[in-house]
């Protein structure tokens, strides 16, 4: 059951629906310290939701495919460093570091979703996130000579965030 003002914010006069309100309860409650949330334009909100969705998918793909095709095969090797008496610490550390990146991406996606719902005066934050995405896209171009295609997604994310920051 939607509060009328919240329904207006999520659906707007043009019938635009933002799914961020359904999946993040903290957004429904608003951001502490802001008395009146302001509506974000539909095209900007769409760019932000698309960028957050791409980050979410990239995190899922990174964790699943990395675990299945890289980490499992790596852990079967007999020449892993034996730290603290065995390979358990090494494999745990590698798995933790691998999946931590996904968590960071999802955290960024959550912040982007917040920015898609209301104006938080985050032009600078969006520009920083755009730069992070751009740099994240440069890494696979450099380290794999472009064979790992995540650079395409990261450049798309960087472009969407840059466009959104210009509209802020």
Work out the radius of gyration: 19 Å
The domain tally reads 1
- Segments where pLDDT lies below 50 for 5+ residues? 1-36
Taken from the alpha-carbon principal axes, the silhouette is: elongated
What portion of residues belong to β-strands?
Answer: under 5%
Q: Which tags fit this structure?
A:
single chain; mainly alpha; 168 residues; elongated
Element layout with pairings:
Layout: H1 4-11, H2 20-23, H3 25-29, H4 42-75, H5 88-117, H6 123-143, H7 150-167
Helix pairs in contact: 4-5, 4-7, 6-7
Describe the structure.
The protein is mainly alpha-helical and 168 residues long. The chain has one domain (39-167). It has helices at residues 4-11, 20-23, 25-29, 42-75, 88-117, 123-143, 150-167. The longest helix is centred in the middle third of the chain and has 34 residues, at 42-75.
Précis, in short:
By secondary structure, the protein is mainly α. The protein contains seven helices and no strands.
